[in-house]
Amino acid sequence: DTEVTQTPKHLVMGMTNKKSLKCEQHMGHRAMYWYKQKAKKPPELMFVYSYEKLSINESVPSRFSPECPNSSLLNLHLHALQPEDSALYLCASSQEGLAGDTQYFGPGTRLTVL
Amino acid sequence: AQSVTQLGSHVSVSEGALVLLRCNYSSSVPPYLFWYVQYPNQGLQLLLKYTTGATLVKGINGFEAEFKKSETSFHLTKPSAHMSDAAEYFCAVSETGGFKTIFGAGTRLFVKA
Prior knowledge:
heterodimer, A: mainly beta, 4-stranded antiparallel sheet, 11 strands, B: mainly beta, 6-stranded mixed sheet, globular
């Protein structure tokens, strides 16, 4: 099984709402990633977890809060977002997070902030 | 810092024609290089990757890429385009010693019937 699943597929939220994105993998991977992708742009790295510890935070605003409850699950908690945060949010996982590891991507959550 | 440059934001080919998508990298050490494909409203899927060893890398769906150190290039080719190849293609380099993968700006491939 080389699948990364993400829920929900689509999310519409107001600027005062609190919501969460969920990502799951059962490949035994120990590194998990959140990316943000705007239309016609490449993915931008937001966070990396390695062995359930936050390893990289790419200076992401605090209105985005990641959580890694266990080695299979990754959440992204959203609060007080801005319209410019509307984007496709992609989750990925890799074996160890080492250079050269293949990243396996989920289908993404399309987020619209009104 | 490592980076990748994809030449051409859009490439259009006829069905059955050669596909050539260009990627150049900058790296002071031997890089790990990837090509990913993204179909509309989907995540990215690995086509192929270069780590070490053979410089001609074969991937899925008939794609291949050649690592040329002297030219710092990793161009993606396919001998005969199919309509189903229409997608966005990203070249990427993996940062040595770290967790980051640096993506190029992407090339949109159009395939004409």
